[in-house]
Amino acid sequence: MKERTTLKIIFTLSALGAIFSGTLSYIEVFGSADSCPALGAPGTILGYPACVYGFGMFLILTAITAYGLWGKRKNTQLPSIE
To answer: For the chain, which residues make up each domain, given as ranges?
Structure first.
């Protein structure tokens, strides 16, 4: 599999993960009081639901792969050993 194809697959999966975890994060943090435990309640990490951290990680992964796909590249090649 080529590098660009792999980056496209990773970008697509991480973007879908960011959308999914972002939706869950929004519901957990800004949803009704009946939908989730209060911020800082047991079952949270540093006061926030785990999906908030997943959202951040997916955003970082999406940004890194987007840079790999569309960022400016210098034409650097490693010297070949023959």
So the answer is: 3-70
This prediction's pTM:
0.71
| 58-80: b (≥16 Cβ within 10 Å) or e | bbebbeebeebeeeeeeeeeeee
pLDDT digit string, tens, across residues 41-73 = 666 777 777 888 999 999 999 999 999 888 766
* Distance, CA of 76 to CA of 11 (rounded, Å): 23
